[in-house]
Amino acid sequence: MANTILKKEQLIPGQTSKLVIDAPHIAAKAQPGNFIILRVNEKGERIPLTIADTDRENGTITIVYLVLGKSTALLEELNEGDDILDLCGPLGKATHIQKGGTVICVGGGTGIAAMHHIAKGHHMAGNHVVAVIGARNKDLLLFEKELKSFCPEVLISTDDGSYGHKGLVTELLKDRLEKDKSVVEVVAVGPVPMMAAVSKTTEPFGVPTTVSLNSIMVDGVGMCGACRVTVGGQTKFACVDGPEFDGHKVDFQELRQRLAAFSPMEKESYDHHCRCKCNDSK
Amino acid sequence: MTASKKTIAKRVPMPNQPPDVRRNNFDEVALGYTKEMAMEEAKRCLQCKKPKCVKGCPVEVPIPDFIAHLAKGDVEKAYAVIKSTNSLPAVCGRVCPQEIQCEGACILNAKEQPVAIGRLERFTADEYMHMDACDLITAKPECPYIDQDRKVACIGSGPSSLTVAGYLAARGCKVTVFEALHEVGGVLVYGIPEFRLPKEKIVAKEVGALKELEVEFVTNYVGGKTFNIEDLFEQGYKAVFVGVGAGLPKFLRIPGENFNGVFSANEYLTRVNLGRAYEFPNYDTPIIKGRKVTVYGGGNVAMDAARTAQRLGAESVHIVYRRTADAMPARHEEIEHAVEEGIHLEVLSNPIEFRGDERGNLTSVLLQRMELGEPDASGRRSPKPVEGDVYELETDLAVIAVGTNPNPVLLENEPGLKLNKWGYIEVDEATGETSIPNVYAGGDIVTGAATVILAMGAGRRAAKEIAHRFGIED
Ligand SMILES: Cc1cc2nc3c(=O)[nH]c(=O)nc-3n(C[C@H](O)[C@H](O)[C@H](O)COP(=O)(O)OP(=O)(O)OC[C@H]3O[C@@H](n4cnc5c(N)ncnc54)[C@H](O)[C@@H]3O)c2cc1C
Ligand SMILES: Cc1cc2nc3c(=O)[nH]c(=O)nc-3n(C[C@H](O)[C@H](O)[C@H](O)COP(=O)(O)OP(=O)(O)OC[C@H]3O[C@@H](n4cnc5c(N)ncnc54)[C@H](O)[C@@H]3O)c2cc1C
Ligand code: SF4
Ligand code: SF4
Ligand code: FES
Q: What ipTM does this complex have?
């Protein structure tokens, strides 16, 4: 239970990294769709991150994170050989995977890594997986190679056209849905506006759409209600009822507002962290 | 001798931090008796032949016996007596609802001056100078030999599991406690605040002593997720105790409940206690401090949330409760302390809607004035709305403390566990055993949200049965 970082790879320097962590007890149980909660140090906050991959044989899990604020910045300071103080999982419900035909898995930004595990699950179940991934530009695109290793099709878009289709993933998705009637499900993982847009895109086609919500969490095991989201007019707890929900029923507007609940404090925390670091190095 | 024949001396008052000081800090409110005070209070006990107080205590602490030792100033003997039935006296002395248990039953309660049993229990536990862990936990001079084959697992680390661990470790079993969070103690650490139950001084001391008896604590391990009960038996555990607590917070189901600034008491208290948000940004967990705070509910949880908000610097704190103050289920002392600290009890009032601004931040609450109706079949006058009397109260932080539902994490993943109609685990009344052989359960996951001492009583019952089946006790 050392939670040792065996491998660290900076996917986008200073912004996104991948860690392979020694956690056999979690790897043994992890399913696509699950996440972990970790704490970097004694004063740290509990933060949730998706399990992007598992290797049961070697007892490892992979996480990919975007450096956003203090906690992810602290995580980024760890190196190979370091231990993560607290690592808890696998949490959340596993992705509901049914064999049925073509599944389109859409990923945006860091969400591509999380989507990768779900896509893999669908692939293993025998579904035809079409991955659609997007980023602002070519350098920010993640997991293309990994996805290509098992997905028969990987469609790519960038905002600036530096790679693949110039535009949004939703344009690729819409195009595909118009042409391909064999699609039984669309899965979307990424920033909230992107998941909202994907759900809106698929709605007229009547294709079931699953989104993985990243609401704010504290315990991650159903004891606090911080993660509550409104789905189909009902309050759900993302950590135990989700994190995956029917995208056509999620109140994305509320989710977006709730994600901003602590913004002033997150900034304060980050500034505090930077100030302390600067003072240390003086 | 009966109480009515002579005028009885008044209870020795508990020294407290003054309200205007303590409302600005998280230090313990009640400072505890001195030895002189304790001996004086102990002498008030009539040493009844048929002590009613004992019947009022869920674990039947031999109350007059320990008080008799205290009256003579013998803390050591008093401690040994209490420990014979209660494994966490420092905790119970502080948090038991004594007025409806031991002290409520005390013969002197007829004069509203019951013996201050809880305070004496607390004094004894705090004053007792233990030599080592065995001494603290077992009240026996020697450490037991721990038989590594008598493996017992506890899931959850609240008072019920800690009791199981203490009881069985003292009898030579090898106990492992699996806890989902990163700290051990259950509600004692993430729920009940520091100013009522000091974490380092009390909870950590008990946990530390258990560790010395080779109790192993495995944190960040979630029953039903990281492992299943079946896995434990495969790993050689011979008995499993499930003490995962009540869990899932209830909300009010009124409009606006998901505005930013509306918290469950569990989230609010967990952020502050477990995350040490009161030391933000030195600690990383943030909390909305709240200028005008409203708290919904009338139990201990509501009091704790309200008093926490006060300490975090709120301008005003209102506890909104739909009945009258005397119907509040919280410990009397907590209600008293809250009022002394300047908290307003907004009684006979019921929330009907939260309102917010365009960014989704809470700004106010709509409240329905209530009145007590005619007595119902049970004789209780239940509140009903006063037609047309709806008013608005400004609030930027609302904390909901109206109870919990069973937490699904373990239960969903252990279909073999039979549940009762409320969704809690069903157990055999006599042994605490569940529908799965050698799997026991107790505490809030069986009874629904209750008390520390009832959870401990349930732990003790299961531990006894386990010891019995191991053949180490009759
Ligand atoms: C189920 C789930 C899976 C996730 N998977 C990933 C992942 O694989 N990779 C990844 O990069 N990010 C993931 N996230 C988001 C990640 O948890 C946040 O980016 C992280 O907590 C930010 O913390 P911070 O201190 O660095 O930033 P902060 O400055 O504290 O916050 C930045 C933003 O992150 C969000 N956030 C803050 N605290 C929390 C919290 N306790 N829980 C959730 N969100 C929070 C808020 O929207 C906030 O505005 C996931 C979130 C959830 C709920
Ligand atoms: C704010 C507050 C104030 C209170 N005040 C009082 C008071 O003054 N007096 C009083 O007598 N009672 C009080 N209570 C009630 C009392 O604390 C509880 O009745 C008691 O703690 C229940 O004990 P327990 O052993 O059942 O579980 P808990 O104390 O609830 O502990 C359960 C533990 O199990 C863990 N867990 C949950 N699920 C899992 C899982 N799947 N796997 C592993 N671990 C898991 C939880 O994280 C937790 O640590 C209060 C409660 C609260 C919330
Ligand atoms: S355990 Fe609680 S009820 Fe029993 S004597 Fe002690 S304080 Fe009273
Ligand atoms: S505590 Fe009260 S009831 Fe108990 S023995 Fe003393 S006087 Fe009697
Ligand atoms: S994070 Fe606490 S209930 Fe979901």
A: 0.92
